[in-house]
Amino acid sequence: MKITDVKSYNLRYPLIEPFANARGWTKTRTAVVVEIRTDAGITGWGEGISVPSTSAIETYLIGHSPFETERIWEALRGNIGASSGVDIALWDIMGKALDMPIYQLLGGAFRLKIPAYASGLFKKEKQDITQALMDEAKGYVDAGFPAVKMKIGFGDAYDVKNVAAVRRAIGDNTLFAVDANCGYDVGTAIDVGQQLADYGLFWYEEPITTDDVAGYREIRHALKVRVAGGEMLQGRWAFRDLLQQRGVDIVQPDVSIAGGFTECRKIAAMASANYVRVLPHMWGSSIRLAATLHWQATLPDAPQALKPIPSLLEFDMTENGLRTELAKQPIHAVDGYVNVPQAPGLGIDINRDVLEKYA
Ligand SMILES: [Mg+2]
C-alpha cells in the first residue's frame, strides 16, 4: 500500500460565548486536520497544530507505505505540529487496513471505558461569575463526572473565592483540579497554592511556564498538591528535563501537539522510567478526542494497585462544533465515563459536510 495524496484543512469554529483562561480570551476554536489517501482506497484522518509543507509531502509521504511510521516521523521532525497530525492519520490507515482499532495496534487496552473529568469552569463575562461557576460545576457532578477542572490564574482574590465556592458546590467526593495556564511566576504560584491548600485539590496544572523546570521543582517542594504540566511540549526532548528532574507529578502530553502516537509512546515510556504519571491533555476536534481515547486506553495504571489513582480523560465541556459535529458518531460521556471507539483505526467517520462548513 502506498500513500497517494495528503490534504490539510484549517478549521475554524466561532464561539457563541467567548471565555478566558489566565492567558487571554478565546473567541474561536481551531483545528488543523490532515487527510491521507492511499492506493488501497483507505483514507486516514489526523489532527495536528500545523500544516505539513508541500516539499515534505512530496519527498517523504507520497509513494511511501503508511506503515513506515517511525521513518516518516523522523523525516518530519522539524515540524512536530504537522508530524502529529500525519502520524495520527497513518495509524488510522494502519488500523483500517488491519481491521483493528488503534488501541490494539498500540499493544492493547487496559480500559475500554475511561473515567472522565469535566474540563470547563472558565472565566466568562457573567455578572455573577461565582454563582455561574457553582451552577456549572454542580451540573457536572449531577451528570456523573467523578472529577472537574477549573481555570485559575486570575489573581489570588478571584482564585481563592471561586475555588472555595466550586468546592462547596461539588462536595467533598468529587476530584477537583485547577489550571493556571502558565499565568503565574514562581512566587505567585506558591502563594496562591498555599491559599488553596484547604480545598483538597487533586492537581495544580501549569502554575508557571513549562520551560522553567527549576521553577516547577520549587513549586513542587513548597506545596503538598500534585503539580501537572506539559500540554504544549513537542517531542521527547522537550519532556526530558521536566521528567528526569521531576518537575511534575503528572505530565500531560497532547497527542496532536507532542508528536502523534509514535512520539507519545516514547514520552510515556520516559515518564514511566521516571515514575511520573501520564494524563493526556485533550483540547481539539473529534479526531484528537478519538486519538486521545485510543492512546489513554493503553497507558497502564502506575503504580498497579487494588484501587489505582484513576486515569482520567480530559473531557472538554466547552462549546466546539469541531468536537461535537465533525465525527458522524459523536463521543459522549455517560455517567462520567467515555467509551473507547471500537471500529477500525480511530473508529470514527468524518462528516465531509461539516469539514467543508468549518474549513
Ligand atoms: Mg491545561
Main sheet: strands, sense, barrel: 9 strands, mixed
Total number of beta strands: 12
| CATH homologous superfamily grouping of the largest domain | Enolase-like C-terminal domain
Bound molecules: magnesium ion
Reported CATH architecture of the largest domain:
Alpha-Beta Barrel
Q: For the residues shown, what is the average pLDDT?
A: 97
Secondary-structure map with pairings?
Layout: E1 3-21, E2 24-38, E3 43-48, H1 54-61, H2 69-75, H3 80-98, H4 102-105, E4 113-119, H5 129-142, E5 147-151, H6 156-170, E6 175-179, H7 186-195, E7 203-205, H8 213-222, E8 227-229, H9 235-244, E9 250-251, H10 255-258, H11 260-273, E10 277-278, H12 286-297, E11 313-316, H13 321-324, E12 337-339, H14 352-358
Parallel strand pairs: 4-5, 4-11, 5-6, 6-7, 7-8, 8-9, 9-10
Antiparallel strand pairs: 1-2, 2-3, 4-12
Helix pairs in contact: 3-11, 5-6, 7-8, 9-11
Notes on the structure:
The protein is α/β, with parallel strands linked by helices and 359 residues long. It has two domains: 3-100 and 352-358, 2-Layer Sandwich (Enolase-like, domain 1); 104-339, TIM Barrel (Alpha-Beta Barrel), CATH 3.20.20.120. Helices cover 38% and strands 21% of the residues. The chain contains 14 helices and twelve strands. The chain has helices spanning 54-61, 69-75, 80-98, 102-105, 129-142, 156-170, 186-195, 213-222, 235-244, 255-258, 260-273, 286-297, 321-324, 352-358, and strands spanning 3-21, 24-38, 43-48, 113-119, 147-151, 175-179, 203-205, 227-229, 250-251, 277-278, 313-316, 337-339. The strands form two sheets. Strands 4, 5, 6, 7, 8, 9, 10, 11 and 12 form a nine-stranded mixed β-sheet that branches. It has a three-stranded antiparallel β-sheet with strand order 1-2-3. Strand 7 (203-205), helix 8 (213-222) and strand 8 (227-229) form a beta-alpha-beta unit. The protein is globular, with a radius of gyration of 20 Å. It binds magnesium ion.
